[in-house]
Amino acid sequence: MFRLRSIGVLSAAKIFAVIQGAIGILVGFFFLIFAMVGAAIVPGQRKLGMIGMIIAAMLMPVIYAAIGFVVGAIWAAVYNLASQSIGGLELQLDSAPIPVTGPLPPAAAGA
Fold it and tell me: What is the pTM of this model?
């Protein structure tokens, strides 16, 4: 049994930022699709609104990543404070056998 006593605040923040940035790309893509469908349904002089939607869709991954960075840092710091008083998460790890790939050593080949 292992205990996770602390998490690196900067490393957790970077991981959260990458994950949230990827989610922001997906959300921005769907936002852009819905904006284009909406602009096609309502014809008229809504070109400025469409440009705003495109800019918003392009900024979503950046905004999501920035928020993810901040939330990840806060989460890791709060976990570190809580684990000092409680003791941290208990982890049970299993060792997996490593498959042997490649040729056998010369001593084993002659046996």
Answer: 0.72
